Task: structure prediction
Amino acid sequence: MERQWYKGDTHLHTLLSDGKHTKGQLVEMCKDKGLDFMIITDHNNNSVEESYYDGDILVIQGQELTEYPGHVNVWGKKVPDEPSFTLRTAEDYAEVIQRCKDAGAVVSVNHPFCSNCPFRLNLEDYDFDCVEVWNTIQHSDNMKNRDWWVGQLLKGKHIGAVGGSDFHDNRYGMPLLAMPMTVVYAESNTADDILSAIKEGRSVVTNDTKSSMIYLTCGDANVGDTVKLSDSQKAELKVTNLKKGHKITVYNNEKVIYEHTASKNSPTFMTSFDIEEAGFIRAEITYKFTPLIKKVYTAVESKFLHGDGNVPDFIWAFTNPIWVEE
Result:
């Protein structure tokens, strides 16, 4: 079956935990955003008994395991234990995560380097399928998540990266739903196919439903695929809705092999380039704040995220890798 791109949000909360909307209200809000799928992940609560369709939108069963040592999303299958269960030690986490995976669930570690609720155990001790690199509106902690994920890729570990809005309500007057959005290249819009594609790294994360989209390919291969290194093999990049001042960077492992900063808004930008070495390629779009906005953002992060006053360039969109073999 030919794959297609499906838009979704992987991290959502309802009144059944600490969200502000009923499940029905949240479904309608996601429909209004034009999403193809959504994953409801109430804290320590199987609020969706099994995945289902509400009209054209797929509602995927999920739960966020939430205790002081760290937050973990479990997608597609119910957590085998009913609340309340004990999650205090590394052994507690290892046991419940393994039981979820044995049941067929896809397991993602959430916002692991969050200043307020990080994953306080050793990340290397757990066989996570995915990592939530981008949690809610963009902030400096997400760049720490990104750096850890890239470190895992450089070790050869295939771990899918996702974004999730962690939506509870539209706080501070901001439309936070589907910010960011995970766009998945799947065989169909079913729970099994969406989650398999996420686990395999067949996704792109972008700022919102109207944001830039990155299409990174190499011949017939797309993100999540593996290609052979060849002198004649070229990779192709297509970006839609590229904004003036935004910078596209393509990495071949740690090495930058292509860069472009947009001099104007562009509905479609395309280029191609050579792959230089085995490992992987990935692409991201970053942007800089104006001095005034950066000053405001620095003050906000210092107050709420214990920031160090050093606000980095933020990601607007990024791809999972295409893997490259000798």
In short: The helical segments are 23-32, 90-102, 140-154, 191-199, 291-304.
